[in-house]
Design a protein that fits this description.
The complex is a heterodimer of chains A (about 625) and B (about 210). Chain A is an alpha+beta fold and about 625 residues long. Helix content of chain A is about 50%, strand content about 15%. In chain A, the strands form 5 sheets. In chain A, strands 1, 2, 3, 4, 5 and 6 form a 6-stranded antiparallel β-sheet that branches. Chain B has a single domain, classed as Ribonuclease H-like superfamily/Ribonuclease H (Nucleotidyltransferase, domain 5, 2-Layer Sandwich), CATH 3.30.420. The chains are: A alpha+beta (about 625), B alpha/beta (about 210). At the A-B interface, helix 1, strand 1, strand 3 and strand 6 of A face strand 3 and helix 6 of B.
Amino acid sequence: MAAAEVSNVISFFKTVTPFQFLSESDIRAYSKKISVTYVRNGDSAHPNQSLNIIRKGALEIFSESQKLVDRIADGECFGVSSLLSGNKENFSVTAIEDSLIYQVSKEDFLELVEKYPQVKNFFEQTRSNRLQKLMLSHKKNPSADVHWNASIQELMSRNLICISPDSTIQEAAKKMADNRVGSILIIENNELKGIVTDRDLRTRVVSQTVDIQKPIELIATKSPITLDEQALVMHAHLTMTHYNVHHLPIVNQQEKPVGMVTATNLLNSHQNSPLLLVSEIYRQQTIADLSVLGRKLPSITRNLMRSGMSSFDIGEVLSVLSDSFTKKLIELAELKLGPAPTNFAWVCFGSQARKDQSLGSDQDNGLVFEHELNELENKYFEQFSNFICNGLAECGFPLCPGSIMATNQEYRMSVKTWQKKFESWIQSPTPKSLLNACIFFDIRMVHGDQLLVKPIKDRLKQWCPSNQIFIATLSRNAAQNKTPLGFFKTFVVDRHGDHKHQLDLKHAGIAIIHDIARTYALSEGITISSSKQRLLQLEGRGSLSNLDIENLVYGLEFLLELRFEAQLSSQENDKTFSNYLNPSELNGLRRQQLKSVFAMIHAAQQGLVYKFSRGVMV
Amino acid sequence: MKCWPFNFGNKNTTPRTKHWIEYTYIALDLELTGLDPKRDEILSFGWVTIEQGKIHLQTIKHEFVNGPYDPSSNISIHGITHADLSKGRSLDSIMNELKRDLWNKPLILHHAALDFKFLMKAWLHCFNGQLTNPVFDTLTFEQKRFLRRHIESRHDDFQLTSCRQRYGLPNYTGHNAHTDALATAELFLSQAHAASQGKFLSQKDLFELS
């Protein structure tokens, strides 16, 4: 009797490259012929002269010299090299997570590649990729529409339009017009001597009526700003913004010109660039127009993620954008209500202050003044705050449900009153009051007079390290949230409710790292707000080992990345930004990483409690 | 003379049996009309062979029993139709094939307390004898594992899907006898690997854990 078909196996094969190339009947036929094996975490897998496909799990491939060549997970293959070349497999494979593996026998595999050349090509490529990785340990180029991390060489034009220094201005202008370019390079003996742009022709020739028969040298910019050919697109962007130039010659190691990048090139490749959005924000004149831009934030975040940008940098970009929205709204408020009657500083707290905003984070902000406000001034700033906070809400930064906003009179105070408020938290801390107040210890100025915020930070620097009870209370609070790892090293997920089978990335991970970083930082009098910066500044101070610091920074980056992914996928589904993640939707590698991150956070919590509250856990 | 520890001659240092992985097993699942072996019947059989730690999909079988059924029996419960059953085979011929496949092989079941009773009944009916193969119950193994570690459990922690999740096995959609037999076989492999921890573990000792 013939073997039965297993629909789960067939549907899996249809999702695996290169098996999609197979005809329906072949997929069915080959899925009947496989064997299923299981490799425990830490054991080595034996390819056994067969093609191995990971159904679920994760493995590492090592070279003969025990160098890590590749990490592979669900849907990826190994054991191909020996089948195709006939050589003995030189790689060894070890499971880093319990893995279920499908094996296709050598005979079936050879029959398959015979019938489907695409399949053969795919596996040959896999093989050469792995060999290449072995030689280069080169990071894969992320396939993306936005090439932040792409080499500038992908974008630059190699067709150099150039001319010798003794040619006339007219010759140069004609050559530019003929080639329809906005700039021309002055080159002598293959050396870059200068650059002339459209703008130079307008400002230095036409408007000053210089004789166009004179040598081009006269009006050229000598030794122009250049960029090395090894640079990334991102660098080109930054260089142009920084120096306010629109034409950037690209040179090789020997400083010889090899290409040219223009602002237009960059713009065309970055329809959704955050830098463009910043300048757009400042151009808008109404809240309605600003809110249209606010709606672009998810798609910008998505592009940044695809480009392989780190989650810290994405958080940084999002804070620059929310700062820009705030500053623009302050400008609009002053236009509407008249200039502010007294000096002020607009400050933000919490995630915006830490620069790790995620999508849909609510706003937390306040105002600091030189002196107590009189009734008239208070009236002004009430309207002012309402305008800004509501405006931010329109732009996609929801109002704070706990009303930690400048609209609340409690958070519009003079420097002195703010200092008193912090003093009361620090000098007589209760676990409960600090649970709500710790958000204020992440404080950053967005707009206004920096001198108003400095005295507050100076006091924190002075008071926090010397107050052991305050630090002990913070550390116990930081230990209260539990990481979601169960006894069997499995994830503890919600069993009921809206988030069944999901993990709360925010409270079970991200927030704990923030708490840990904040506690250590304040105990050392570090008043910067970003958790990454806090941790990095702790290096060499002895309270946390460099390895712990590295682990916490890595863990935070990883969790933030997962959260962005979770948010973008939940936004696609139901327009909300969820902090929840279903761990069974992660591939084996990610699950493995997530488990070790949670375990690391748990250990760091214990270390914190041990250090600051003599091991007393609440 | 050394009196203690008592020396009972040569202590047998050779293992009782071979390593569990060297055996051939059959993982089996049944779809039933109900939970009472006296009254209810087997609707379909699914089974698959595990050999040298590998599950060979070429050996996977899925057989419907073509009756006769008590007209009152509930066949729709598993999404099985009368058309499926009418294309099936007689209980006798299926049992004969199963008997051939099962010869000398330990049997793997999830929730043996139920399926094994139905199997015994059919065995008695067809061969007038007892089914004596050793049985490993993947559910009992899990229950004992929780008990050994003093972990509280809930009933649904022992469903096939929940057990598989704890071992990182994929979620299978659609439940029928042969998919569940495969799912049980995979669970068995992961349990056996977890129990032996890369060391020697005989089939007998492994089966005593369930």
